[in-house]
TrEMBL record:
<dbReference type="InterPro" id="IPR055558">
    <property type="entry name" value="DUF7134"/>
</dbReference>
<protein>
    <recommendedName>
        <fullName>histidine kinase</fullName>
        <ecNumber>2.7.13.3</ecNumber>
    </recommendedName>
</protein>
<keyword id="KW-0808">Transferase</keyword>
<dbReference type="Pfam" id="PF02518">
    <property type="entry name" value="HATPase_c"/>
</dbReference>
<keyword id="KW-0547">Nucleotide-binding</keyword>
<dbReference type="InterPro" id="IPR050482">
    <property type="entry name" value="Sensor_HK_TwoCompSys"/>
</dbReference>
<dbReference type="Pfam" id="PF23539">
    <property type="entry name" value="DUF7134"/>
</dbReference>
<feature type="domain" description="Histidine kinase/HSP90-like ATPase">
    <location>
        <begin position="303"/>
        <end position="405"/>
    </location>
</feature>
<feature type="transmembrane region" description="Helical">
    <location>
        <begin position="49"/>
        <end position="69"/>
    </location>
</feature>
<feature type="transmembrane region" description="Helical">
    <location>
        <begin position="137"/>
        <end position="158"/>
    </location>
</feature>
<keyword id="KW-0812">Transmembrane</keyword>
<dbReference type="InterPro" id="IPR036890">
    <property type="entry name" value="HATPase_C_sf"/>
</dbReference>
<feature type="transmembrane region" description="Helical">
    <location>
        <begin position="22"/>
        <end position="43"/>
    </location>
</feature>
<dbReference type="InterPro" id="IPR011712">
    <property type="entry name" value="Sig_transdc_His_kin_sub3_dim/P"/>
</dbReference>
<dbReference type="InterPro" id="IPR003594">
    <property type="entry name" value="HATPase_dom"/>
</dbReference>
<dbReference type="GO" id="GO:0005524">
    <property type="term" value="F:ATP binding"/>
</dbReference>
<dbReference type="GO" id="GO:0016020">
    <property type="term" value="C:membrane"/>
</dbReference>
Length: 408
């Protein structure tokens, strides 16, 4: 029996008696009255018994049975009192057994042992002071002790069963609460994952669309060939955005924790293509990739690096148009991967055209931002076992840097 179960049983506040409590209390009082009447009838046969003593036996036995109504509220004082009274007046013995049983049900083992020891010690005294004419001293003593031990064992069994029921009930409530918390956490993680994937995939493509569309808006006098090329870039970017949206949906439907999907996800090997797309949108990007071979890098790690660089380039395109962005990725299986993206303050407005010949005009294009992308990067890096931070540089630029373990 653990202390928690004992405390639950001992300190549980009593409420109004239920129907079951009424039935049990009435049966206990009736049983105590029957035993008391049998004891009183046996003592009536004893020679030279004063009628006043027999009357006292009857009155005290009835009072002891009535006192059992308080056994749930004061079990230990009632049991001790009835043990002492029943030693001199045997008709109270039935009420004493019920009181000892109540102590065994509602109190811890130490209290039960003390009360039970007192009851056992009183058993030899009772037949010595008020001998039973039908039983010898030894038989009466052994019978009394066996009855005390029987009610104590029965009471402790009932108590153990109640503790087991309480423990199982509490465990069921705890399991239900934990299951609800896990379900809420799973929903929250799923929402965060959806938001992170949607932002990482679509923000980059849509920012490219904004750049090229804004360039067409601010260059209405551009040659038809350049306008056609810019429109083609817009069409291709929109098509790629739709394809990547399908990839995101496939990843979210996949059972794996890091996403699987039917289409391949971007890895570190695709970092050059990402930089080239940004250059075609009119950005000036330098890539320093000091990883000997991108192939051995685990896909999940490479995908996280790709998303960090993608979000940093998207933010640079929004807030530092025309500035030269430096991307550095270096590392090894022993040291992990270090990522750093730095850009100085925003460059001159209306920068260069893209390498495909499309008018850039990105400096004049306002691309809205929610500020959630950098927060998502920190969360993504933390989930991968690494870290990612960002902040301004002394010259007014901006720096995103992080570290990822080689294998997640």
């Amino acid at each position: 029996m653990d202390m928690t179960s004992e405390a639950m049983t001992e300190e549980l506040p009593r409420t109004a008696r239920s129907f079951r409590d009424w039935v049990v209390d009435i049966l206990c009082i009736a049983l105590a009255a029957v035993i008391g009447l049998l004891n009183a009838e046996a003592l009536r046969k004893a020679p030279d018994v004063a009628p006043a003593l027999l009357a006292a036996d009857q009155i005290v036995g009835a009072a002891a049975c009535v006192a059992l109504w308080t056994r749930r509220r004061w079990p230990v004082p009632l049991a001790v009192t009835l043990i002492v009274v029943s030693t001199f007046l045997p008709p109270a013995g039935g009420a004493m057994l019920v009181a000892v049983f109540t102590v065994a049900v509602h109190r811890p083992f130490r209290t039960v042992a003390a009360v039970g020891g007192l009851a056992l010690a009183s058993e030899p005294l009772q037949p010595a002071l008020r001998p039973d004419p039908d039983l010898p001293f030894l038989a009466a003593t052994v019978t009394g002790m066996l009855l005390v031990l029987a009610v104590i064992g029965w009471g402790m069994f009932v108590r153990s069963r109640r503790q087991l029921v309480l423990s199982l009930r509490e465990r069921a409530h705890r399991a239900e609460a934990e299951a609800q918390l896990r379900a809420e956490q799973a929903q929250r993680l799923a929402r965060e994952r959806i938001a992170r994937e949607m932002h990482d995939v679509l923000a980059h493509r849509l920012s490219l669309l904004c750049v090229h569309a804004g360039a067409l808006e601010f260059r209405p006098d551009a040659p038809p060939a350049e306008v056609a090329r810019a429109a083609g870039v817009i069409r291709d970017s929109a098509h790629q955005a739709l394809e990547e949206l399908r990839e995101v949906i496939g990843v979210l439907r996949a059972p794996g924790a890091d996403g699987g999907g039917d289409r391949p996800q971007p890895t570190l090997a695709a970092l050059g293509e990402l930089v080239e797309e940004s250059r075609q949108a009119g950005m000036s990007v330098t890539l320093h990739q000091q990883v000997s071979d991108a192939a051995p890098v685990p896909e999940a790690t490479g995908r996280t690096v790709y998303r960090i660089v993608q979000e940093a380039l998207t933010n640079a395109r929004k807030h530092a148009a025309g500035a030269e962005v430096g991307v550095r990725v270096e590392g090894s299986p022993e040291a992990g991967l270090k990522i750093e993206i730095v850009n100085p303050p925003g460059g001159e407005q209306g920068g260069r055209g893209g390498r495909d010949g499309s008018p850039a005009g990105q400096g004049s294009v306002s691309v809205p931002g929610s500020g959630q992308g950098l927060i998502g990067l920190a969360e993504r890096a933390a989930l991968a076992g690494g870290r990612c931070a960002h902040g301004p540089t002394p010259d007014g630029g901006f720096r995103v840097h992080g570290w990822l373990p080689w294998r997640l």
